[in-house]
Specification:
Length: 154
Amino acid sequence: MQVLFVCLGNICRSPTAEGVFRQYLADSPLAHQVRVDSAGTADWHTGKAPDPRTCSAALKRGYDLSKLQARQVTEEDFHRFDLILAMDNSNLADLQAMRPANSHAEVDLLLQRYQLARNEVPDPYYGGEQGFEEVLDLLEGASKGLLAELQARA
């Protein structure tokens, strides 16, 4: 199973989702059966590390994002990944628009899929520290749901 998390620039939400889920996965029996990555629908930050505020907030909770680099979603991703999870409706619409007709990937909205209190992971980029904490809270909840789904599929 291969899972791709997607936001706009791949420097805040989706790398956080990748880092959080990697940690949940590492502590599960599926650790060597699931591949995880993240990407952005835009190419503004390609090759750059996650936002320093994202890294700082994540590290406080034990998630190390220091080795991640932003990249843009490619057509190949729709063939390589089984599950592509968008952080918000705008990115979901972008993914659906760029999705090739012969793609087998499931494309969905992360929080909605796991029926959390919100449908979208808010973009913390222009806000304060609390926004990054809220993103972590939401992604930890979603990671539990995703892990349960993958364990049920295995």
